[in-house]
Structures are given as structure tokens and as C-alpha cells.
Amino acid sequence: MGLERKLRIVATSDMHIESERNGLKAVEHATEISQLIADVLVVIGDIGTPKEDVENVLKELGKFPGEKLYVLGNHDLINLENSKVPFHIDELNELLNKYDFHLLDNKPKVIEKIGFVGNIGWYNGDFFDFVKKNVKIKNGDPNNWVSALRKAGQILKNEERYKGKLDPILFSNLGFFYQNFKKLRKELRAYQKNDDVDYIVASTHYLPTEKLIAPEKFEDFNYKGTYLGSNAIGKLYTKFPKLVLGLCGHDHSPIDDRRVFISDKPIYNVTAEKSKPYHIFDIMSDGSVKNQPTNNKKN
Ligand SMILES: [Fe+2]
Ligand SMILES: [Fe+2]
Predict the structure, then answer these.
(1) What is the β-pairing status of strands 109-111 and 114-119?
(2) Rounded to the nearest whole angstrom, what is the distance from the C-alpha of residue 16 to the centroid of ligand 2?
(3) Cβ(58)–Cβ(85) below 8 Å
(4) Beta strands of 112-235 (E only): which ranges?
(5) How far is the CA of 194 from the centre of ligand 1 (A)?
(6) Percent of the chain that is helix, strand, coil (3-state, to 5)
(7) If you measure from the C-alpha of residue 45 to the centroid of ligand 2, how many angstroms do you get, rounded to a whole number?
(8) How far is CA 96 from CA 5, 40, 88, 193, in A?
(9) For residues 179 and 224, is the Cβ–Cβ distance under 8 A?
(10) What residues contact residue 36 under an 8 Å CB cut-off, 6+ apart?
(11) What is the number of the ligand closest to the CA of 18?
């Protein structure tokens, strides 16, 4: 009994090799990550583009000796060839298989009695509040939601503060959000009931709660929320007692300590930064989570 460590997880996201963001050198950090001693590596999307460079990062990360999990990010979907989501998944899946990554968007995975679930989490549900106020719809009907969101897009694109920022076409991705949300819910339910699973770790590329958004961004939350995530995912987490940790990325300017709680569940943004290219979490035998300091020489 006691607090013996059950599993050590290294988590990172948003390495964005195309931008070498804030001096972040994706390949160098990938090499550093691959040498860490841990059981599981979770990469929560947005390695970047083009595909050849993504492969260079995956090749390095692939040297990590433990289990390797991947969750798709929006750049993984958007910046590869064509623009059809299912093809991107196939295309990336091939690449991920080559370097021994398991794609959580396809299937969850149990490692040492910890159930790992996750997917990109796109598309945002928080814009629904705007829609509810401004467009007449029947609650809960996905078809109505889709047309209502399109209408909301038309309304918002004429607003000065959204000019040039809002792409009404994004409003058509609601179906994709539902697809991901339902898949996550199904997997959480299955692991909650499964005796071979003691605890659950959930990873989504998008934020599962607006609490993770820095206050200065909040004014435009309806707009930012479109791109940042959905409270619906965080609310879902609260229904599963086995869920002990939520991870996400996508927001490149995270709040200072990167962690919030949804009821008693810690949720971390693990977006890579020069000073913190990855995060280490220990899942203890009692289900508590310890966020270990990142021992980065470059600090
Ligand atoms: Fe990103
Ligand atoms: Fe992203």
C-alpha cells in the first residue's frame, strides 16, 4: 500500500517544428525526451509541418524506450496533404506506426492498469452559448446546431472585432466535435467498468476547460474559445471517478502553473516551451498524481 509509484508519464505537445517557436528546437528536444527514464510518452499533437520534418521529430521521439502514445493536433490535420480529415489520420497513422506510436484517436490503450484515452477534441462546444443567445435553435439537435453555427458564423464575421479572424467554414466542424466527444465518452465508460483498469488518464489536444485560459484572453473567449477547446470535455471528466489526470496542449501561452482542477481532477497544459519542453507525471498507487519538476539543463 502507500504511495509507491505506479507509472511515470512524460507528456509534451505543440513542438511546431515549422516555427521553431520561441527558440524551441523540436528535434533537439525530441532527442532529450527520448533519453528520459519513464514508462510512457504521450505526445498531444501539433508536431508541425511539413511531413518530412514531422518524421524527423517522430524518429527521435521513437527512440524513447517505453510505450509511445500520440494524439492528433489541428496542425497535424490541417497542414498535411489535401484537407480531408480521415485521409490525414491514415497518412499519419502510417508514420506513427513506423516509429511505434499508438494513436489514441484510433483506439484507447491500457498500460500497467492505467487506461489511456484521448483524441484531438475538436470542435469547440463553448461557442454554443453565443449561438443559444443569438440564433433560434432546438436544443440538442445536431442538425440544428450545425445550421445554427453556420448562421452564427455569418453574424459574427460582420462584427468589427472578428473581421479577418473568423472563418465561417470552421463552424461546419461541429459534427467532428461530436464524433470525438462521443468516442471519448464511450471509452471512459468502458474503462470505468473494466476491472483491469485502476485509473484513467485522458488527453485531448484542445483544452477541456476554459479555466486553463489566461485571463487576458478571456474577453474574447467566445472567439478564442472557438479555437481553444470545450468545457463539455471537462464536465465529462467529472463523471468518471477513475479519471485521475487530464492533459492537453494547443494553447501556446498557457497560464503560469499550467494546472487547474475540475472538481478534484488535475488538468495540465503540456505545450512545449523552450524552458519546459516536456512534463513528467507520476501516477501513484493511491491514484494521486505528482507533477515532477522538469530537469531541463537549458533552464
Ligand atoms: Fe499548436
Ligand atoms: Fe493546436
Answers:
(1) antiparallel
(2) 9
(3) no
(4) 114-119, 199-204
(5) 33
(6) 40, 20, 40
(7) 7
(8) 29, 15, 12, 29
(9) no
(10) 10, 64, 278, 280
(11) 1
Residues with Cβ within 8 Å of 92's Cβ and at least 6 positions away in sequence, in order, are 72, 76, 80, 103
Q: Torsion angle of alpha carbons 18, 207, 219, 153, nearest 10°?
A: 80
Residue 179 CB contacts under 8 Å (≥ 6 apart), including other chains: none
pLDDT digits (tens, 9 = 90+) for 21-76: 656 789 999 999 999 999 999 999 999 877 778 889 999 999 999 999 999 887 77
Taking the CA atoms of 215, 218, 224 and 227 in sequence, report the sign of the dihedral they define.
positive
Which one, of 22, 79, 23, lies nearest residue 48 by Cα?
79
Report the Cα 194 to chain-centroid distance in Å: 24
User: Which segments of 31-179 are extended strands (E)?
Assistant: 40-43, 67-70, 101-103, 109-111, 114-119
Question: From the CA of 205, how far away is ligand 2's center (Å)?
Answer: 7
Which grid cell sits at 272?
A: 512545449
Q: What is the pTM of this model?
A: 0.81
Distance CA 32, CA 60 (A): 9
What confidence tier does 3 reach under pLDDT thresholds 50, 70, 90?
A: confident
Domains of the chain: residue spans and CATH? 5-292 (3.60.21.10)
The x, y and z cell numbers of residue 264, run together, are: 478534484
CA neighbor of 127 nearest in space, from 45, 243, 206:
206
